[in-house]
Design brief:
Oligomer: single chain
Number of domains: 4
């Protein structure tokens, strides 16, 4: 056996990939008005420095937020990372065999429209030449008649031929314009149907170019993260009331139109507002000036009644659009228990987060000044283990959907309440009386207002229990010492159970089946003689 020496062979050069390496979305953190996207791919690295092309990715990615790291596999390091965008113009070729009949129809209409447009141009040019020929012929007739040359037969023949051709081509032009108008309408209708039936592919594409260096050949895991706009989320709930228990499901409603789908991604939802830190506060001039009060202003105090409305579903948008996320002033992060998929169609997609069941107490309440309806209010404790953010609630009672309510921000373990719609078995009628007079040597103006609330309960023969209705009314709250507001408890029937600092008066009114009760509220608003506007 003979062994012959062999020449050492050089290591093979690493071959560049034939196409971009897929870089799917694996995790998404939705913020109030954007999303933090994380992508993961396993790379087959060769020893040394190499440049890889990954993607495609959304072209809306924010360049300055790009970051990448190699998390597992061979010892390697990322040297450079950049986002390369490309514009793919629409292909001028006709549709192929795989395209839909609607696209073939649009192509045929477009070709016919172009042909009719060229035919119109030729007809207009022909009619213009015939008009010039008629003008030249008339000028020749005038010049010949002036010289005494009369060729009546030729002139008549030429004029008849020009007029006949002008009439013929004019008729063709009118038919051509009518066909162009019909083609324009058909093409617009076909394009509208195409927009509703099919979605045009994205023409703006982007890829990631990453330069890495590896000590040895082998697989390595690359993780890339970036911010992207055109994505947002809002909390939503579904509350099911059954007997004395309430089942509350927390969901995240996600909208995204980033140009790509999120398939099987780990979803997280944060209330962080990253855009607020980048907007400096607006500065405006605030000029203060002093002047002497007039004698009339020193003698009188102008007062007026002001209504205040308090929102409870987060800070509203300036244009009255979708409200922001109310997180109680602290950043909250909620995570979906299972991977989810969110298509990039811009529509609302609901992702389940948490659910819990707890005992609940309910009562009937009404505020007759705002509404004549008596509403069932359900109170329960927040047993979800996280803060309940302000948002809409789908209300389900018994076996069906009863309406939509609103849940305020609720800390973990705190009490919350939901209004489950009005009850048809109650009726409230509100009556007001007002009298004005003056008392004392100082001639204080006294305004006395009496409010009567008539409550009725309509019950069926199967109802025998007494039901308590919580009634709320309000009285004005004075902000100036010259005006006083006094609740006349001795004239109120029955006496109020509570009066808070905001001027809200409360009663707990028991109503038996078929019963009626009248609640009377009396209060006085008095002001000194120099008070105007009372």
């Amino acid at each position: 056996m003979t062994i012959e020496p062999t020449e050492p062979t050089a290591p093979a050069e690493p071959t560049a990939p034939t196409g971009p390496i897929p870089l799917p979305v694996t995790a998404v953190t939705c913020l109030e008005d954007r999303a933090q996207v994380e992508r993961t791919a396993v790379l087959d690295l060769a020893a040394g420095v190499q440049r890889l092309r990954l993607g495609p990715v959304t072209a809306l990615a924010v360049d300055r937020t790009l970051h990448a790291e190699l998390t597992a596999g061979q010892p390697a390091k990322v040297l450079d990372l950049r986002l390369v965008r490309g514009w793919t113009p629409r292909s001028p070729l006709p549709p192929g065999a795989d395209d839909s009949p609607l696209r073939h129809r649009i192509h045929a209409l477009t070709v016919e429209q172009l042909a009719e447009g060229r035919r119109r141009e030729r007809l207009e040019a022909r009619i213009a030449l015939l008009g010039q020929l008629a003008a030249d012929l008339l000028r020749e007739i005038g010049e010949g008649a002036g010289r005494g040359e009369v060729e009546r037969a030729r002139w008549t023949r030429e004029l008849d031929r020009v007029d006949a051709e002008r009439e013929e081509y004019g008729e063709r032009l009118r038919a051509n314009r009518a066909r162009l108008a019909a083609l324009s309408d058909e093409l617009a209708e076909a394009l509208r149907a195409l927009d509703e039936a099919e979605e045009e592919p994205a023409e703006l594409t982007a890829h990631l170019e990453v330069t890495v260096t590896a000590d040895a050949a082998g697989p390595a895991e690359l993780r890339v993260g970036h911010l992207t706009p055109c994505a947002l989320w809002r909390p939503a709930y579904r509350a099911t009331l059954s007997g004395g228990e309430l089942h509350l499901e927390t969901e995240a409603v996600v909208w995204q139109r980033t140009g790509e789908d999120w398939s099987g991604a780990r979803m997280s939802f944060s209330t962080a507002r990253s855009a607020l830190a980048t907007d400096p506060p607006r500065l405006a001039e605030d000029r203060l000036s002093l002047r002497e009060r007039s004698a009339e202003e020193r003698r009188t105090v102008e007062v007026e009644l002001r209504e205040e409305e308090i929102g409870s579903t987060g800070p509203a948008a300036p244009d009255g659009g979708l409200p922001g996320v109310d997180d109680g002033g602290e950043v909250r992060v909620l995570r979906a228990p299972h991977p989810a998929s969110v298509p990039g169609d811009g529509r609302a997609h609901r992702i389940p987060l948490t659910a819990f069941t707890t005992s609940a107490s309910s009562e009937y309440a009404c505020a007759p000044e705002l509404s004549p309806l008596v509403t069932q209010v359900v109170r329960f404790g927040n047993g979800s283990g996280h803060a309940l953010l302000a948002g809409p609630v789908d209300l389900v009672r018994g076996s069906g959907f009863t309406g939509r309510g609103e849940l305020s921000f609720t800390a973990p373990g705190a009490a919350a309440e939901l209004a489950f719609g009005s009850s048809d078995g109650y009726r409230v009628v509100r009556e007001t009386e007002e009298s004005r007079g003056s008392v004392g040597l100082t001639q204080r103006t006294v305004l006395t207002r009496t409010v009567r609330l008539h409550l009725s309960r309509f019950s069926g023969p199967e109802e025998h229990d007494e039901q308590v209705v919580a009634v709320r009314e309000r009285i004005p709250v004075s902000e100036v010492s010259a005006v006083e507001v006094r609740l006349r408890k001795e004239a109120c029937v029955p006496a109020p159970d509570e009066l808070d600092a905001e001027g809200v008066v409360r009663w707990q009114v028991p109503l038996p089946p078929g019963g009626r009760r009248t609640v009377t509220l009396v209060y006085e608003v008095s002001g000194t003689a120099k008070v105007a506007g009372l």
